[in-house]
Amino acid sequence: MRVDVEQGKCVGAGQCVLLAPEVFDQRDEDGIVELLDARPAPEARDGVREAAEACPAVAIRLVEA
């Protein structure tokens, strides 16, 4: 799995950080998503999928490999 984020779409809701904190973070100044790991470990993938589904701005894209 590869994870891509579109920071321009992000609204700073923070659901991604709550669901997969090992993969996502938020910038302190504006809450916009930061990608920590574009290729998450297998044990993190369920949380990443949940984060992508929960994102209100559809700013997270998953590429299954």
Walk me through this protein's architecture.
With 65 residues, the protein is an alpha+beta fold. Helix content is 23%, strand content 22%. It is built from two helices and four strands, in the order βαββαβ. It has helices spanning 15-19, 45-54; strands at 2-5, 24-26, 33-35, 60-63. It has a two-stranded antiparallel sheet with strand order 1-4.
Give descriptors for this structure.
65 residues, alpha+beta, two-stranded antiparallel ribbon, 4 strands
Give the gist of this structure.
With 65 residues, this protein is α+β, with helices and mostly antiparallel strands. The chain is built from two helices and four strands, in the order βαββαβ.
